[in-house]
Amino acid sequence: MAHTTDETIEVSSSKFDLKHTEEQHAEVEDDALLSGKDARIKVIKRKTDLRICGLLGLLYTMAAIDRVNLGTLLILVFFPFYIAFQPPMIAIARKIRPRRFITFIVVAWGIVTTCHGVVSTWRQMLALRCLLGILEAGYFSTAAYLVSTWYTRREVAKRNSSFYLFGSMLGGFGGILAYGLQQMDGVDGKEGWRWIFIMEGIITIVLGIPAYFILVDFPEEAPKSWKFINEEQAQLVVTRINLDRRDVITPPFNLKHYLSHAKDWKIWFFAINFCMTSVVNYSAAYFLPIVLRNELGFSVAAAQCLNAPCYVFAIILGVTEGFLSDRWNLRAPFFLLNCALEILGVCLLGFAKPSGVRYFGAFFIIGPAFSNIPFSLTYQANNILGQWKRAFCSATIVGAGGIGGIIGSLVFRSQDAPAYRPGLYACLVAVALCIVSMCTTTVYFVSANKKADRGEKIIEGDPQFRYTY
Fold it and tell me: Which ranges does the record mark as transmembrane (predicted)?
Protein backbone atom coordinates (compact mmCIF):
# COMPACT_ATOMS: atom_id res chain seq x y z
CA MET A 1 0.00 0.00 0.00
CA ALA A 2 2.83 2.28 0.91
CA HIS A 3 4.46 1.41 -2.39
CA THR A 4 1.30 2.33 -4.25
CA THR A 5 1.10 5.66 -2.45
CA ASP A 6 4.72 6.46 -3.27
CA GLU A 7 4.08 5.53 -6.90
CA THR A 8 1.03 7.76 -6.97
CA ILE A 9 3.03 10.60 -5.53
CA GLU A 10 5.73 10.03 -8.13
CA VAL A 11 3.21 10.05 -10.98
CA SER A 12 1.53 13.18 -9.61
CA SER A 13 4.90 14.85 -9.30
CA SER A 14 5.73 13.96 -12.92
CA LYS A 15 2.46 15.42 -14.10
CA PHE A 16 3.14 18.61 -12.18
CA ASP A 17 6.65 18.87 -13.61
CA LEU A 18 5.31 18.34 -17.14
CA LYS A 19 2.68 21.03 -16.70
CA HIS A 20 5.25 23.38 -15.22
CA THR A 21 7.61 22.71 -18.15
CA GLU A 22 4.82 23.42 -20.68
CA GLU A 23 4.04 26.71 -18.97
CA GLN A 24 7.73 27.69 -19.02
CA HIS A 25 7.94 26.78 -22.70
CA ALA A 26 4.86 28.91 -23.45
CA GLU A 27 6.37 31.85 -21.59
CA VAL A 28 9.63 31.55 -23.52
CA GLU A 29 7.72 31.40 -26.81
CA ASP A 30 5.63 34.44 -25.83
CA ASP A 31 8.77 36.37 -24.91
CA ALA A 32 10.35 35.52 -28.27
CA LEU A 33 7.23 36.70 -30.11
CA LEU A 34 6.93 39.89 -28.10
CA SER A 35 10.61 40.82 -28.37
CA GLY A 36 10.73 40.02 -32.09
CA LYS A 37 13.52 37.47 -31.66
CA ASP A 38 11.36 34.74 -33.17
CA ALA A 39 12.73 34.08 -36.69
CA ARG A 40 9.21 34.05 -38.14
CA ILE A 41 8.52 37.54 -36.78
CA LYS A 42 11.78 38.86 -38.23
CA VAL A 43 10.69 37.73 -41.70
CA ILE A 44 7.29 39.39 -41.32
CA LYS A 45 8.79 42.65 -40.05
CA ARG A 46 11.17 42.84 -43.01
CA LYS A 47 8.17 42.64 -45.32
CA THR A 48 6.08 45.15 -43.41
CA ASP A 49 8.93 47.64 -43.07
CA LEU A 50 9.16 47.87 -46.85
CA ARG A 51 5.52 47.55 -47.76
CA ILE A 52 4.15 49.79 -45.04
CA CYS A 53 6.80 52.20 -43.74
CA GLY A 54 8.72 52.60 -47.01
CA LEU A 55 5.64 53.14 -49.15
CA LEU A 56 3.91 55.45 -46.67
CA GLY A 57 7.02 57.64 -46.54
CA LEU A 58 7.20 57.83 -50.31
CA LEU A 59 3.55 58.81 -50.64
CA TYR A 60 3.84 61.38 -47.85
CA THR A 61 6.55 63.12 -49.88
CA MET A 62 4.00 64.54 -52.29
CA ALA A 63 1.81 65.91 -49.51
CA ALA A 64 4.85 67.56 -47.90
CA ILE A 65 5.92 69.13 -51.20
CA ASP A 66 2.44 70.42 -51.98
CA ARG A 67 2.01 72.40 -48.76
CA VAL A 68 5.06 74.63 -49.17
CA ASN A 69 4.42 75.70 -52.77
CA LEU A 70 1.52 78.08 -52.17
CA GLY A 71 0.77 81.52 -50.83
CA THR A 72 -0.61 82.13 -47.35
CA LEU A 73 -4.26 82.52 -48.40
CA LEU A 74 -4.38 79.17 -50.16
CA ILE A 75 -2.63 77.49 -47.23
CA LEU A 76 -5.25 78.88 -44.83
CA VAL A 77 -8.10 77.59 -47.02
CA PHE A 78 -6.56 74.10 -47.04
CA PHE A 79 -6.17 73.58 -43.28
CA PRO A 80 -9.75 74.08 -41.97
CA PHE A 81 -10.96 71.23 -44.18
CA TYR A 82 -7.89 69.17 -43.32
CA ILE A 83 -8.70 69.57 -39.62
CA ALA A 84 -12.48 69.09 -39.80
CA PHE A 85 -12.33 65.86 -41.80
CA GLN A 86 -9.78 64.01 -39.66
CA PRO A 87 -12.27 62.06 -37.45
CA PRO A 88 -14.62 60.83 -40.21
CA MET A 89 -11.82 59.97 -42.64
CA ILE A 90 -9.96 57.66 -40.26
CA ALA A 91 -13.24 55.96 -39.32
CA ILE A 92 -13.90 55.36 -43.03
CA ALA A 93 -10.36 54.00 -43.45
CA ARG A 94 -10.96 51.53 -40.62
CA LYS A 95 -14.19 50.44 -42.31
CA ILE A 96 -13.04 49.98 -45.92
CA ARG A 97 -9.40 49.02 -45.12
CA PRO A 98 -6.27 51.15 -45.55
CA ARG A 99 -5.12 49.69 -48.89
CA ARG A 100 -8.25 50.78 -50.72
CA PHE A 101 -8.65 54.00 -48.79
CA ILE A 102 -5.07 55.28 -49.12
CA THR A 103 -4.87 54.36 -52.80
CA PHE A 104 -8.08 56.24 -53.54
CA ILE A 105 -7.23 59.43 -51.67
CA VAL A 106 -3.65 59.60 -53.01
CA VAL A 107 -4.73 59.18 -56.63
CA ALA A 108 -7.61 61.61 -56.06
CA TRP A 109 -5.40 64.30 -54.56
CA GLY A 110 -2.95 63.79 -57.43
CA ILE A 111 -5.77 64.54 -59.87
CA VAL A 112 -6.82 67.59 -57.83
CA THR A 113 -3.22 68.84 -57.69
CA THR A 114 -2.94 68.52 -61.47
CA CYS A 115 -6.13 70.54 -61.82
CA HIS A 116 -4.45 73.37 -59.89
CA GLY A 117 -2.33 73.94 -62.97
CA VAL A 118 -5.21 74.35 -65.42
CA VAL A 119 -7.77 76.45 -63.54
CA SER A 120 -8.53 79.95 -64.81
CA THR A 121 -9.92 81.78 -61.75
CA TRP A 122 -8.92 82.17 -58.11
CA ARG A 123 -12.34 80.86 -57.02
CA GLN A 124 -11.64 77.58 -58.79
CA MET A 125 -8.25 77.43 -57.09
CA LEU A 126 -9.84 77.95 -53.66
CA ALA A 127 -12.38 75.19 -54.35
CA LEU A 128 -9.57 72.82 -55.29
CA ARG A 129 -7.70 73.67 -52.09
CA CYS A 130 -10.78 72.84 -50.03
CA LEU A 131 -11.13 69.50 -51.82
CA LEU A 132 -7.42 68.77 -51.35
CA GLY A 133 -7.75 69.47 -47.63
CA ILE A 134 -10.54 66.88 -47.38
CA LEU A 135 -8.56 64.24 -49.28
CA GLU A 136 -5.26 64.74 -47.47
CA ALA A 137 -7.09 64.69 -44.12
CA GLY A 138 -7.33 60.93 -44.38
CA TYR A 139 -3.70 60.19 -45.15
CA PHE A 140 -1.38 60.96 -42.27
CA SER A 141 -3.65 59.87 -39.41
CA THR A 142 -4.49 56.62 -41.23
CA ALA A 143 -0.81 55.99 -41.95
CA ALA A 144 0.16 56.50 -38.30
CA TYR A 145 -2.75 54.34 -37.16
CA LEU A 146 -1.83 51.55 -39.58
CA VAL A 147 1.78 51.48 -38.32
CA SER A 148 0.59 51.26 -34.71
CA THR A 149 -1.55 48.18 -35.49
CA TRP A 150 1.35 46.17 -36.93
CA TYR A 151 4.06 46.75 -34.34
CA THR A 152 4.41 46.48 -30.58
CA ARG A 153 4.79 49.61 -28.50
CA ARG A 154 8.58 49.20 -28.37
CA GLU A 155 8.85 49.04 -32.16
CA VAL A 156 6.89 52.04 -33.39
CA ALA A 157 9.26 54.96 -32.70
CA LYS A 158 11.80 54.04 -35.36
CA ARG A 159 9.02 53.12 -37.81
CA ASN A 160 7.15 56.39 -37.30
CA SER A 161 10.42 58.27 -37.61
CA SER A 162 11.40 56.41 -40.77
CA PHE A 163 8.18 56.87 -42.71
CA TYR A 164 7.55 60.47 -41.65
CA LEU A 165 11.12 61.74 -41.88
CA PHE A 166 11.84 59.91 -45.13
CA GLY A 167 8.83 61.63 -46.66
CA SER A 168 9.77 64.96 -45.12
CA MET A 169 13.38 64.66 -46.29
CA LEU A 170 12.30 64.08 -49.87
CA GLY A 171 9.73 66.84 -49.40
CA GLY A 172 12.60 69.10 -48.36
CA PHE A 173 13.90 68.76 -51.89
CA GLY A 174 10.52 69.97 -53.15
CA GLY A 175 11.83 73.50 -53.44
CA ILE A 176 14.55 72.31 -55.79
CA LEU A 177 11.97 70.36 -57.80
CA ALA A 178 9.68 73.39 -57.95
CA TYR A 179 12.56 75.61 -59.03
CA GLY A 180 13.38 73.18 -61.83
CA LEU A 181 9.77 72.89 -62.98
CA GLN A 182 9.50 76.68 -62.92
CA GLN A 183 11.97 76.70 -65.81
CA MET A 184 9.27 75.14 -67.99
CA ASP A 185 7.67 78.58 -68.11
CA GLY A 186 6.20 79.11 -71.56
CA VAL A 187 6.09 75.44 -72.55
CA ASP A 188 2.77 74.76 -74.28
CA GLY A 189 1.84 78.33 -73.45
CA LYS A 190 1.61 77.68 -69.70
CA GLU A 191 3.26 79.62 -66.91
CA GLY A 192 5.95 77.94 -64.83
CA TRP A 193 3.80 77.80 -61.68
CA ARG A 194 1.19 75.81 -63.57
CA TRP A 195 3.76 73.22 -64.59
CA ILE A 196 4.75 72.80 -60.94
CA PHE A 197 1.24 71.63 -60.06
CA ILE A 198 0.68 69.62 -63.22
CA MET A 199 3.91 67.64 -62.90
CA GLU A 200 3.63 67.14 -59.13
CA GLY A 201 0.06 65.92 -59.58
CA ILE A 202 1.12 63.44 -62.25
CA ILE A 203 3.95 62.15 -60.05
CA THR A 204 1.46 61.67 -57.18
CA ILE A 205 -0.90 59.65 -59.40
CA VAL A 206 1.96 57.51 -60.69
CA LEU A 207 3.04 56.75 -57.12
CA GLY A 208 -0.50 56.23 -55.83
CA ILE A 209 -1.74 53.57 -58.25
CA PRO A 210 0.85 50.86 -57.29
CA ALA A 211 -0.05 51.39 -53.62
CA TYR A 212 -3.11 49.21 -54.15
CA PHE A 213 -0.86 46.26 -55.01
CA ILE A 214 1.86 46.93 -52.42
CA LEU A 215 0.24 48.30 -49.27
CA VAL A 216 -1.31 45.91 -46.76
CA ASP A 217 -4.34 46.13 -44.51
CA PHE A 218 -4.61 45.55 -40.77
CA PRO A 219 -2.91 42.36 -39.50
CA GLU A 220 -6.11 40.35 -39.14
CA GLU A 221 -7.01 41.22 -42.76
CA ALA A 222 -3.51 40.99 -44.25
CA PRO A 223 -3.85 37.52 -45.84
CA LYS A 224 -6.36 39.10 -48.22
CA SER A 225 -3.78 41.72 -49.32
CA TRP A 226 -2.28 40.04 -52.39
CA LYS A 227 -0.96 37.02 -50.48
CA PHE A 228 1.35 39.28 -48.51
CA ILE A 229 1.37 36.89 -45.57
CA ASN A 230 -0.54 33.70 -44.88
CA GLU A 231 -3.10 32.99 -42.16
CA GLU A 232 -0.50 31.51 -39.80
CA GLN A 233 1.77 34.56 -40.10
CA ALA A 234 -1.16 36.91 -39.59
CA GLN A 235 -2.09 35.03 -36.44
CA LEU A 236 1.48 35.41 -35.15
CA VAL A 237 1.25 39.19 -35.58
CA VAL A 238 -2.16 39.32 -33.90
CA THR A 239 -0.86 37.16 -31.02
CA ARG A 240 2.16 39.36 -30.33
CA ILE A 241 0.09 42.56 -30.49
CA ASN A 242 -2.34 41.03 -28.00
CA LEU A 243 0.57 40.02 -25.77
CA ASP A 244 1.74 43.63 -25.88
CA ARG A 245 -1.52 45.53 -25.35
CA ARG A 246 -4.51 43.19 -25.80
CA ASP A 247 -6.55 45.44 -28.11
CA VAL A 248 -6.49 43.79 -31.54
CA ILE A 249 -10.23 43.04 -31.56
CA THR A 250 -12.18 45.92 -33.06
CA PRO A 251 -15.76 46.31 -31.78
CA PRO A 252 -18.49 47.61 -34.14
CA PHE A 253 -18.35 51.34 -34.77
CA ASN A 254 -20.55 53.41 -32.48
CA LEU A 255 -20.49 57.17 -33.00
CA LYS A 256 -21.37 58.05 -29.41
CA HIS A 257 -18.68 55.75 -28.02
CA TYR A 258 -16.18 57.00 -30.62
CA LEU A 259 -16.71 60.64 -29.64
CA SER A 260 -16.74 59.82 -25.91
CA HIS A 261 -12.96 59.42 -26.05
CA ALA A 262 -12.79 63.21 -26.17
CA LYS A 263 -13.38 63.14 -22.38
CA ASP A 264 -9.87 61.75 -21.81
CA TRP A 265 -7.77 64.79 -20.88
CA LYS A 266 -4.53 63.05 -21.91
CA ILE A 267 -5.59 63.05 -25.57
CA TRP A 268 -5.67 66.86 -25.54
CA PHE A 269 -2.18 67.02 -24.06
CA PHE A 270 -1.01 64.68 -26.83
CA ALA A 271 -2.67 67.10 -29.25
CA ILE A 272 -0.79 70.06 -27.71
CA ASN A 273 2.50 68.23 -28.28
CA PHE A 274 1.67 67.66 -31.93
CA CYS A 275 0.13 71.09 -32.51
CA MET A 276 2.95 73.13 -31.00
CA THR A 277 5.61 71.00 -32.67
CA SER A 278 3.81 71.60 -35.96
CA VAL A 279 3.95 75.36 -35.40
CA VAL A 280 7.75 75.22 -35.47
CA ASN A 281 7.71 72.55 -38.15
CA TYR A 282 5.54 74.47 -40.62
CA SER A 283 7.12 77.84 -39.80
CA ALA A 284 10.51 76.47 -40.74
CA ALA A 285 9.24 74.75 -43.88
CA TYR A 286 7.46 77.85 -45.17
CA PHE A 287 9.90 80.57 -44.22
CA LEU A 288 13.40 79.13 -44.01
CA PRO A 289 13.89 79.58 -47.80
CA ILE A 290 12.71 83.19 -47.42
CA VAL A 291 15.15 83.87 -44.59
CA LEU A 292 17.99 82.26 -46.53
CA ARG A 293 17.18 84.32 -49.60
CA ASN A 294 16.15 87.70 -48.20
CA GLU A 295 18.10 87.95 -44.96
CA LEU A 296 21.20 85.86 -45.56
CA GLY A 297 21.65 87.02 -49.14
CA PHE A 298 21.52 83.72 -51.04
CA SER A 299 20.07 83.44 -54.54
CA VAL A 300 16.77 81.63 -55.10
CA ALA A 301 18.56 78.51 -56.39
CA ALA A 302 21.12 78.57 -53.57
CA ALA A 303 18.40 79.04 -50.93
CA GLN A 304 16.49 76.02 -52.21
CA CYS A 305 19.65 73.92 -52.25
CA LEU A 306 20.69 75.04 -48.75
CA ASN A 307 17.24 74.17 -47.46
CA ALA A 308 17.61 70.48 -48.35
CA PRO A 309 20.57 69.50 -46.08
CA CYS A 310 18.52 70.50 -43.02
CA TYR A 311 16.03 67.76 -43.89
CA VAL A 312 18.82 65.23 -44.40
CA PHE A 313 20.00 66.08 -40.88
CA ALA A 314 16.41 65.64 -39.65
CA ILE A 315 16.17 62.04 -40.88
CA ILE A 316 19.62 61.18 -39.46
CA LEU A 317 18.70 62.67 -36.07
CA GLY A 318 15.14 61.32 -35.98
CA VAL A 319 15.86 57.75 -37.05
CA THR A 320 18.83 57.52 -34.67
CA GLU A 321 16.70 58.79 -31.79
CA GLY A 322 13.85 56.49 -32.80
CA PHE A 323 16.15 53.46 -32.73
CA LEU A 324 17.51 54.38 -29.29
CA SER A 325 14.04 55.25 -28.02
CA ASP A 326 12.72 51.79 -28.93
CA ARG A 327 15.77 50.07 -27.49
CA TRP A 328 15.51 51.88 -24.14
CA ASN A 329 11.71 52.16 -24.19
CA LEU A 330 11.89 55.90 -23.51
CA ARG A 331 9.92 58.63 -25.28
CA ALA A 332 9.74 61.81 -23.19
CA PRO A 333 13.54 62.31 -22.70
CA PHE A 334 14.14 62.36 -26.46
CA PHE A 335 11.18 64.68 -27.06
CA LEU A 336 12.47 67.10 -24.41
CA LEU A 337 16.02 66.91 -25.77
CA ASN A 338 14.68 67.94 -29.16
CA CYS A 339 12.79 70.82 -27.56
CA ALA A 340 16.05 72.08 -26.06
CA LEU A 341 17.74 71.82 -29.47
CA GLU A 342 14.87 73.75 -31.07
CA ILE A 343 15.34 76.60 -28.60
CA LEU A 344 19.05 76.65 -29.46
CA GLY A 345 18.24 76.66 -33.17
CA VAL A 346 15.71 79.49 -32.95
CA CYS A 347 18.16 81.61 -30.94
CA LEU A 348 21.02 81.00 -33.38
CA LEU A 349 18.93 81.67 -36.49
CA GLY A 350 17.13 84.64 -35.02
CA PHE A 351 19.70 86.45 -32.90
CA ALA A 352 23.19 85.52 -34.11
CA LYS A 353 25.05 87.82 -36.52
CA PRO A 354 27.30 85.68 -38.78
CA SER A 355 25.43 84.10 -41.71
CA GLY A 356 27.15 80.75 -41.18
CA VAL A 357 26.04 80.59 -37.54
CA ARG A 358 22.49 81.52 -38.47
CA TYR A 359 22.39 78.83 -41.14
CA PHE A 360 23.80 76.35 -38.62
CA GLY A 361 20.88 77.28 -36.36
CA ALA A 362 18.46 76.22 -39.10
CA PHE A 363 19.65 72.62 -38.69
CA PHE A 364 18.70 72.73 -35.02
CA ILE A 365 15.22 73.95 -35.86
CA ILE A 366 14.38 71.63 -38.74
CA GLY A 367 16.03 68.50 -37.33
CA PRO A 368 14.51 68.41 -33.83
CA ALA A 369 11.12 69.87 -34.86
CA PHE A 370 10.61 67.28 -37.57
CA SER A 371 11.93 64.51 -35.30
CA ASN A 372 9.38 65.40 -32.60
CA ILE A 373 6.44 64.77 -34.92
CA PRO A 374 6.96 60.97 -34.92
CA PHE A 375 7.81 61.11 -31.20
CA SER A 376 4.43 62.77 -30.60
CA LEU A 377 2.76 59.99 -32.57
CA THR A 378 4.65 57.29 -30.70
CA TYR A 379 4.03 58.80 -27.27
CA GLN A 380 0.26 58.83 -27.76
CA ALA A 381 0.14 55.43 -29.48
CA ASN A 382 2.05 53.85 -26.57
CA ASN A 383 -0.32 55.21 -23.94
CA ILE A 384 -3.83 54.37 -25.11
CA LEU A 385 -5.78 51.13 -25.46
CA GLY A 386 -8.64 50.23 -27.78
CA GLN A 387 -8.85 50.36 -31.58
CA TRP A 388 -11.47 53.12 -31.83
CA LYS A 389 -9.76 55.17 -29.15
CA ARG A 390 -6.52 54.75 -31.09
CA ALA A 391 -8.28 55.91 -34.26
CA PHE A 392 -9.89 58.89 -32.51
CA CYS A 393 -6.61 59.92 -30.92
CA SER A 394 -4.69 59.71 -34.22
CA ALA A 395 -7.32 61.87 -35.91
CA THR A 396 -7.33 64.38 -33.05
CA ILE A 397 -3.60 64.96 -32.84
CA VAL A 398 -3.15 65.15 -36.63
CA GLY A 399 -6.03 67.63 -36.75
CA ALA A 400 -4.25 69.63 -34.05
CA GLY A 401 -1.21 69.53 -36.30
CA GLY A 402 -3.35 71.27 -38.92
CA ILE A 403 -4.04 74.06 -36.42
CA GLY A 404 -0.28 74.27 -35.94
CA GLY A 405 0.02 74.59 -39.71
CA ILE A 406 -2.32 77.59 -39.72
CA ILE A 407 -0.36 79.27 -36.93
CA GLY A 408 2.95 78.43 -38.58
CA SER A 409 1.86 79.99 -41.86
CA LEU A 410 0.99 83.30 -40.17
CA VAL A 411 3.70 84.00 -37.60
CA PHE A 412 6.50 84.99 -39.99
CA ARG A 413 5.07 88.08 -41.66
CA SER A 414 6.77 90.12 -44.36
CA GLN A 415 6.24 93.35 -42.39
CA ASP A 416 8.37 91.91 -39.56
CA ALA A 417 11.49 91.66 -41.75
CA PRO A 418 14.40 91.66 -41.29
CA ALA A 419 14.32 90.51 -37.63
CA TYR A 420 11.06 88.52 -37.73
CA ARG A 421 10.83 88.81 -33.95
CA PRO A 422 7.10 87.85 -33.60
CA GLY A 423 7.69 84.65 -35.53
CA LEU A 424 10.75 83.74 -33.47
CA TYR A 425 8.92 84.43 -30.21
CA ALA A 426 5.94 82.37 -31.39
CA CYS A 427 8.27 79.41 -32.02
CA LEU A 428 9.84 79.77 -28.57
CA VAL A 429 6.41 79.89 -26.91
CA ALA A 430 5.34 76.80 -28.90
CA VAL A 431 8.40 74.88 -27.71
CA ALA A 432 7.78 75.98 -24.12
CA LEU A 433 4.19 74.69 -24.27
CA CYS A 434 5.48 71.36 -25.59
CA ILE A 435 7.83 71.10 -22.61
CA VAL A 436 5.06 71.89 -20.11
CA SER A 437 2.64 69.43 -21.77
CA MET A 438 5.16 66.59 -21.96
CA CYS A 439 6.32 67.07 -18.38
CA THR A 440 2.71 67.14 -17.12
CA THR A 441 1.71 63.84 -18.73
CA THR A 442 5.02 62.18 -17.88
CA VAL A 443 4.73 63.02 -14.18
CA TYR A 444 1.18 61.65 -14.22
CA PHE A 445 2.30 58.47 -16.01
CA VAL A 446 5.09 57.82 -13.50
CA SER A 447 2.66 58.26 -10.60
CA ALA A 448 -0.03 56.10 -12.22
CA ASN A 449 2.42 53.27 -12.93
CA LYS A 450 3.57 53.24 -9.30
CA LYS A 451 -0.03 53.07 -8.09
CA ALA A 452 -0.77 50.26 -10.54
CA ASP A 453 2.28 48.33 -9.31
CA ARG A 454 0.92 48.62 -5.76
CA GLY A 455 -2.50 47.43 -6.89
CA GLU A 456 -4.13 50.79 -6.16
CA LYS A 457 -5.08 51.66 -9.75
CA ILE A 458 -6.07 49.99 -13.03
CA ILE A 459 -4.76 51.84 -16.08
CA GLU A 460 -6.86 52.05 -19.25
CA GLY A 461 -9.11 49.28 -17.90
CA ASP A 462 -6.32 46.68 -18.09
CA PRO A 463 -4.56 45.50 -14.89
CA GLN A 464 -1.42 44.60 -16.87
CA PHE A 465 -1.11 47.85 -18.83
CA ARG A 466 1.57 50.39 -17.92
CA TYR A 467 2.24 53.79 -19.40
CA THR A 468 5.38 54.42 -21.45
CA TYR A 469 7.23 57.69 -20.87
Answer: 71-89, 101-120, 126-151, 163-181, 193-215, 267-292, 298-320, 332-352, 358-379, 391-411, 423-447
